[in-house]
Amino acid sequence: MKKIVFALLSVVVMICSSTKVEAQEKKKEMFREESMRTYEVGNTTVQLKKGTVWVYNFGDVKLHAYETKDFFDSYVYLLEKNGKAVLLECPPIKDNYKELVDYIAGLEHKNVDLIVSYHPIGAQFINTDKIKFNVFSMKHAVDHYTTGLGAPSLIGLKDRFGEVFDETIFTEYTNLKEGENEVGGFKFEMSNVDFAFDVAIPELNSVHPHMLAHNRHALIFSYEFLDAYIAQLKRYQKVNYEMYLTSHGGFETRGDVTIKIHYLNDLKEIAKASSTKKEFIDKMNEAYPNFGWSFYLQGTSSFLFKN
Length: 307
Description:
- This protein is α+β, with helices and mostly antiparallel strands.
- It has one domain: Ribonuclease Z/Hydroxyacylglutathione hydrolase-like (Metallo-beta-lactamase, Chain A, 4-Layer Sandwich).
- The chain has seven helices and 15 strands.
- The strands form two sheets. A nine-stranded mixed β-sheet has the order 1-2-3-4-5-6-7-8-9. A six-stranded mixed β-sheet has the order 10-11-12-13-14-15.
- Strand 2 (38-47) and strand 3 (52-57) form a beta hairpin.
- Helix 6 packs antiparallel against helix 7.
- Mean pLDDT is 87; it is low at 1-39.
């Protein structure tokens, strides 16, 4: 398929709880909610100065989901097993760096493997003497931001968010292959998707994609991209992953995948029936009045319409 362009030392509070993760939305006319599933995941919540860490215990594996509370609603994930640690992505905003490094160091990890997929940026994150990070990625994911169509987006993000945004790119890394890779004692399945790659974690029956965001707008670059996105989500359904560890929005579920597929099909139908950006945006807002990330809807309109 053609690849198409366009994720403790300062602990204040620890609260033990059991959180229900639920993929239900209020019924909307354009939704057919299917395969909704509610499950319980025991967790400990660790409040840092800025972000929050959700610690999930799966027996031999412990998962730390760091909610950065940045502009992009970014999450990064730390996996622990047998004294080893693997970090999936790193934050793109500098004021998250110290507290996350301190948190990981507080877990007594001095050597951590870091997999960067959709976010091979934020390279200043590893400039610390507290932890040695071993970086893993794929060439096409890095090239997208160094010489590809992703490069201009970094300029725009830097202009918009200023010095706090770390646009530096990881250029030194161990190259991963598509398919099975073993990193930090974990077996991962890497799947090339668009300009980067998904990271499946068979041990947890989960996958780490860029985003799902069942209640937020998607950024669609072309109809070809849209069709590939729908096909990607249908592949998720076929594999039947239980958890989706997204870079933007945190934990999502099987039911959220179903909701997103319906959203994308509706978006395609509305776009085909619209003549202008304004008409498209108005119809989408009427169909999905409470969806977040309106800037993505604006961006989609610019990619799909010239007027």
